[in-house]
Specification:
Distance between the termini: 60 Å
Radius of gyration: 28 Å
Number of helices: 28
Largest sheet: 12 strands, mixed
Structural class: alpha+beta
Strand content: 15-25%
Shape: globular
Number of strands: 29
Oligomer: single chain
Helix content: 40-55%
Length: 875
């Protein structure tokens, strides 16, 4: 419907008129187990006040039908007040009560009330996901973050199910005359926004525990804990470890924030086909069930899960207790939670690589996003809900967290926490903007943070820092740090202040590259002299931004680059080594060095990389470099050599190690485009080949089948047999991907039709089908370029924003090669530009995706142009 996209101005006008007090929501999902039932009864009663009696406003509801609307005792004519997704409420009183009875619809897109049938046992599972504005798909409401209220939920469901919501369960009553169903009543919540309310219902496995804690003033706290997952996944569930992480996190954050956990119980549910990593619903956090590891997972995956768990827990304060007024200030919750999640892993677990993985993964995500023409300031301009949906990106999360890390260094950790504590006390259960946070932090630190906010929060783009060294006879003369900081959106230079550590690394007696000296300096403007380095011996490696204190890309000076390319594995410090990996990758992405040289570095040094998080990242980068950045005429040779390395390292890795698993995954991914090791994959699948310590479990098996299918060496019968062996949700996804990967035109036609024209695929199966479809050379997909551009507006208008975004982003013809000429003259870029020029009035969110995909393709073609000559051997 055209009026689903609420604007910021409409939201501001509504919150200026009304204040919401309470919701009473009743949902009846007794018939959910019947696939033929597409909807369920939903009834909402809202009490709210109006500042201008006689004025009017509207409610939001995206459902199947509205049966009745009653306002202050008056029955309103449904046909007159319901307009698409809005319900008009006229002639308000000072105090009002409205009741809306309607039919809400079950979802297969992960938006609203998602319904999932477990292929393993046929059982039905429900959960809700609302951010940024999908609570209106489940119950009528005022869908904006600054209209907080208390919520009381009642759910009627099959008696044998587990049912939960934000509040504690107060009563469970069998329905008179229907012994197969019961009604669950939940306690009223404290004031919260609509988008963080939630309901969970189904035959979930449930584990329970309790956390006991004490605040600094001696106040004793007791919080009931629970964990949920699908019954068929219970054998793989590890509640003891999850409860341990949860208790540690509650200890940490309650002490750190000195504000008692405000939401009563703390439950966590791992749910199927989830669109996000997790969602911070107070009292009932939801996570992707990918965090229930049914196949072998690397240690970095467990660390990543812990990071997400602590990220969501931090939201109980940043985001839930205190919430941004509108989505412009989304960073007020996401940047803080991203920072706090990493801090929590560092402070409350045995992992000592939290900040290394943050630098190598989270910041890498931000660096990519911040170089797109659609980048934006951390404090963004979000005019409407569609824009809000697109802004859950690397800027809001990882760049914001990186900048907060810098802010902590600038004002001091104690002042930062003191300001945060005051912020919670001043704004508990309320809504805030940037000014409110800056006021609290400025008071606590004694610093005026206005200039800092303007430079870091209200500009966009990333700085690139390079050391210029005047070297005279092995002694450094003048050393300057230059800063390039162009805003991709405006083209303006936006240099920012950086507090840096510059590390000097030299070989020790054993040959390891170790830090022998370091200096701290402030960098501002385009060029900054570092006088503290004058007269020092020229090191083998001069590492700008050592210890990753600032948010910036680093270009290695020529001598330091030569050292890294010849001796990267000798760098003993994990953070320094990760930063050097990142510098090499940035050079490849930016066409400052041929991408083939990055792949060579990975082949040379990845086998000895001890950090599994770093190893997985660089192997993934190498695969991207080969398929996107290496010129087509060189790609086959580069890929074949990389595949041979993967096979060699799989055989040589310590049996049962994470490194062995990483190389097995890389072997499968590379084999999708190179048939050189297909016999090895077949042997591992049928058991005729055994590699000591390698368990070829479900996830690896589907990765291997994907590769075989991409070469036409796995037919429907074989894939059906594998699905019968692994008839699970992840198995169905693997099956869908492998089927669509087969290199036959009719197969690609069927996959395209299912994705673009069909509506039967759930969100997860849609993504799996797109992944298989796009596993193909560009020549096989060339016929879909024009249909892609022809379908865009129809897809955006007829599908939900989640599903439409997956289609538009996933099917963009990105796998193109440069075939002579200028990258900007490539036919797909020309066609993209023509579409953008001819569709100036297309929805902003749709245009943003197209602009971003165009930028990524141009970057790939530019890198291919830079790598046309064969790479010379690394020095």
């Amino acid at each position: 419907m055209s009026n689903q996209n609420l604007s910021r101005d409409e939201a501001a006008a509504r919150s200026a008129l009304i204040s919401t007090h309470s919701y009473d929501v009743w949902l009846d999902v007794r018939q959910a187990e019947d696939p033929a039932e597409t909807g369920y009864p939903s009834r909402t009663t809202i009490t709210f006040s109006a500042r201008e009696p006689g004025a009017g406003t509207f409610l939001d509801f995206i459902g199947g039908a509205v049966q009745a609307v009653t306002l202050n005792g008056r029955e309103l004519a449904v046909s007159e007040v319901v307009d698409g997704s809005r319900i008009r409420l006229d002639d308000l009183q000072a105090d009002n009560q409205v009741t809306v009875t309607g039919t809400a619809l079950y979802s297969t897109s992960g938006e609203g009330m998602h319904r999932f049938f477990d292929p393993a046992d046929g059982q039905c599972y429900l959960y809700t996901q609302y951010e940024p504005a999908d609570a209106r798909r489940v119950f009528a409401n005022f869908e904006q973050p600054d209209l907080k209220a208390e919520f009381t939920f009642h759910v009627t469901a099959p008696s044998g199910w587990a049912v939960s919501s934000n509040g504690a369960e107060t009563q469970r009553t069998p329905l008179p005359g229907d012994p197969a169903a019961s009604r669950w009543d939940f306690a009223p919540t404290r004031p919260m926004s609509t988008y963080i309310t939630t309901v969970l219902a189904g035959p979930y496995f449930k584990a329970e525990d309790t956390w006991h804690g004490t605040l600094a003033d001696g106040t004793a706290l007791e919080v009931p804990l629970a964990l949920y997952c699908r019954a068929s996944m219970a054998p793989s569930f590890d509640p003891d470890e999850l409860f341990r992480l949860t208790r540690n996190g509650l200890d940490f954050f309650n002490g750190l924030f000195d504000y008692p956990y405000p939401w009563g119980k703390y439950e966590q549910a791992f749910v199927p086909e989830y669109n996000l990593g997790a969602m911070e619903n107070p009292g009932l956090v939801t996570f992707t069930e990918s965090y229930v590891f049914t196949s072998r997972a690397a240690d970095s995956q467990y660390q990543g899960r812990a990071n997400t768990l602590l990220h969501e827990m931090a939201h109980m304060w940043f985001g839930d207790l205190v919430t941004m007024r509108w989505w412009d200030d989304l960073w007020l919750k996401e940047s803080f939670a991203d920072y706090m999640g990493t801090l929590g892993v560092d402070r409350t677990t045995d992992w000592d690589t939290a900040w290394v993985n943050f630098a190598n993964n989270r910041k890498a995500w931000a660096y990519v996003q911040d170089q797109l023409p659609t980048t934006h300031p951390i404090v963004a301009d979000i005019p409407d809900l569609e824009a809000a949906k697109q802004n859950f990106d690397g800027i809001t999360y990882a760049k914001g967290a990186s900048v907060l890390k810098q802010l902590v260094a600038y004002v001091g950790f104690d002042a930062f926490i003191a300001g945060s504590r005051q912020y919670f006390r001043d704004h508990a259960y309320g809504n805030t903007t940037l000014a409110d946070l800056l006021a609290a932090l400025s008071t606590a630190s004694g610093r005026d943070l206005g200039a800092w906010a303007r430079q870091w929060l209200q500009t966009s783009g990333i700085s690139t820092l390079t050391a210029e060294i005047d070297d005279a006879g092995g002694v450094m003369g003048s050393v300057a740090i230059t800063q390039q900081a162009e805003d991709p959106a405006t083209g303006r230079q936006e240099p920012r202040p950086h507090r840096l550590r510059i590390g000097l690394y030299n070989p020790d007696a054993a040959g390891a590259l170790v830090r022998t000296d370091s200096v701290e300096t402030d960098v501002d403007g385009g060029r900054t002299l570092v006088s503290a380095l004058t007269g020092k011996a020229r090191p083998a490696l001069l590492l700008v931004n050592d210890e990753d204190l600032s948010y910036a890309k680093v270009r290695l000076d020529p001598q330091s680059e030569a050292t890294v390319r010849s001796s990267l594995g000798a760098i003993s410090d994990p953070m320094a080594r990760a930063l050097c990996w990142t510098a090499l990758w940035d050079a490849a992405r930016d066409a400052a060095a041929p991408a083939e040289r990055y792949v060579e570095a990975v082949q040379r040094f990845a086998p000895a990389e001890p950090g599994i998080g770093v190893l997985l990242a660089v192997l993934g980068n190498a695969s991207t470099a080969i398929e996107r950045y290496v010129p087509a005429r060189r790609r086959g040779a580069v890929r074949h050599a990389f595949l041979a390395t993967a096979a060699e390292q799989l055989a040589a890795a310590v049996p049962g190690s994470d490194q062995q698993l990483a190389w097995a995954r890389t072997l499968a991914a590379t084999s999708r485009f190179d048939a050189g090791e297909l016999d090895l994959l077949r042997g591992l699948l049928d058991g005729s080949t055994v590699i000591e310590g390698l368990t070829v479990d479900a996830e690896l098996r589907w990765n291997f089948w994907h590769a075989l299918a991409a070469h036409g060496q796995a037919g429907p019968e074989q894939l059906e047999a594998e699905l019968a062996r692994d008839n699970t949700a992840s198995g169905k996804s693997g099956h869908a991907t492998a089927l669509a990967a087969r290199p036959d035109p009719p197969v690609k036609d069927a996959a395209w039709d299912a994705a673009v024209h069909g509506t039967a695929l759930s969100n997860q199966l849609l993504s799996a089908t797109i992944a298989g479809f796009t596993t193909a050379p560009a020549s096989l997909l060339a016929g879909y370029v024009e249909p892609y551009f022809e379908c865009l507006e129809r897809v955006w208008a007829t599908r939900s924003i989640e599903i439409a975004s997956r289609i538009v982003r996933g099917l963009f013809p990105a796998g193109q090669d440069l075939d002579g000429g200028s990258p900007a003259e490539h036919p797909v870029l020309v066609r993209t530009d023509a579409w953008l020029a001819g569709h100036q009035d297309a929805p902003r969110a749709l245009r943003r995706i197209i602009v971003e995909q165009r930028s990524q393709l141009l970057r790939a073609l530019t890198a291919q142009a830079a790598g046309q000559e064969p790479s010379s051997a690394a020095p």
